[in-house]
């Protein structure tokens, strides 16, 4: 982990040392993630890619810093648009109170792929095109466990399917919503509990019907 609780107050960011090193998210500002990448002995030029689980500013706010260091930024299709525009609503800048500096996205992820031998998964629901990374029993799932808001392109049916996909992987460890859950049973419990409670729409931005 290179940023986020328990290290600091930003969204979680991870350095994955798979067949090659890559980053998952960049925190709200990027400086802490950047320093920690160096601390773990990796130069930004060695990073294969920076994969954003989604466009929220607590996760993608540091993208610009890595982009300036020559790292390719990747995001799901709709989330990439928000990162490139610095869309205040979609990136939740209006709720979090931190602006996302518009950043070019070099890889717009439209289908599942391998990144340095790790599985890049489509996990829409929390935002329209949220992504996850699965590697050696560890699932980095962004904010898979909610909340949902129409301003982020959240979608209840997609959210259910993504939770079911996460369950089918039977991860040993899952990091979601700025927490990590350890052990197959605990992870399954968290996912099943979420499914049981249903899509966690925020009251102020529920779909109208
Ligand atoms: Zn989020």
SSE layout:
Blueprint lengths: L13 E4 L3 E4 L6 H9 L10 E2 L5 H4 L2 H6 L4 E4 H9 L7 H4 L10 E3 L3 E3 L2 E5 L8 E5 L2 E3 L15 H14 L3 E4 L2 E4 L1 H14 L12
Parallel strand pairs: 2-3, 3-4, 4-5, 9-10
Antiparallel strand pairs: 1-2, 6-7, 7-8, 8-9, 10-11
Helix pairs in contact: 6-7
Zinc ion binds next to loops.
Description:
This protein has a single domain (14-205), classed as Metallo-beta-lactamase, Chain A. Helix content is 29%, strand content 20%. It is built from 7 helices and 11 strands. A 6-stranded mixed β-sheet has the order 6-7-8-9-10-11, with helices on one face. The chain has a 5-stranded mixed β-sheet with strand order 1-2-3-4-5. The model has no long low-confidence stretch (mean pLDDT 96). It binds zinc ion (ZN). Residues 54, 56, 126, 143 line the site of zinc ion.
What is the CATH superfamily?
Ribonuclease Z/Hydroxyacylglutathione hydrolase-like
Strand content: 15-25%
Q: Which hetero ligands occur in this complex?
A: zinc ion
Structural class assignment: alpha/beta
Q: Supply the CATH class.
A: Alpha Beta
Radius of gyration: 16 Å
On the 0 to 100 scale, the average pLDDT is 96
Helix content: 25-40%
Structural domains: how many: 1
The outline comes out as: globular
Q: What characterizes the major β-sheet? A: 6 strands, mixed
Task: Specify the number of helices.
Answer: 7
Residue runs with pLDDT of under 50 for 5 or more positions: none
Element pattern in H and E: EEHEHHEHHEEEEEHEEH
The separation of the N and C termini measures 40 Å
């Amino acid at each position: 982990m290179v940023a986020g609780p328990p290290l600091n107050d930003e969204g979680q960011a991870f350095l994955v040392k798979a067949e090659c090193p890559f980053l998952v998210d960049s925190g709200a500002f990027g400086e802490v993630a950047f320093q920690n990448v160096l601390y773990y002995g990796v130069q930004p030029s060695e990073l294969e890619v920076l994969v954003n689980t989604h466009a929220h500013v607590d996760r993608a706010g540091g993208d610009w810093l890595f982009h300036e260091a020559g790292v390719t930024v990747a995001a799901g299709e709709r989330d990439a648009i928000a990162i490139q525009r610095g869309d205040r609503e979609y990136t939740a800048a209006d709720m979090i109170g931190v602006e996302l500096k518009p950043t070019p996205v070099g890889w717009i992820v439209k289908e599942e792929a391998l990144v340095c031998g790790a599985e890049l998964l489509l996990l829409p629901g929390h935002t329209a095109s949220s992504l996850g990374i699965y590697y050696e029993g560890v699932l980095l799932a962004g904010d898979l466990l909610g909340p949902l808001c129409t301003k982020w392109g959240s979608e209840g049916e997609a959210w259910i399917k993504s939770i079911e996909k996460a369950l089918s992987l039977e991860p040993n460890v899952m990091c979601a919503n700025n927490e990590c859950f350890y052990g197959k049973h605990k992870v399954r419990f968290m996912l099943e509990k979420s499914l049981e409670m249903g899509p966690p729409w925020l009251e102020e931005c529920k779909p109208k019907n």
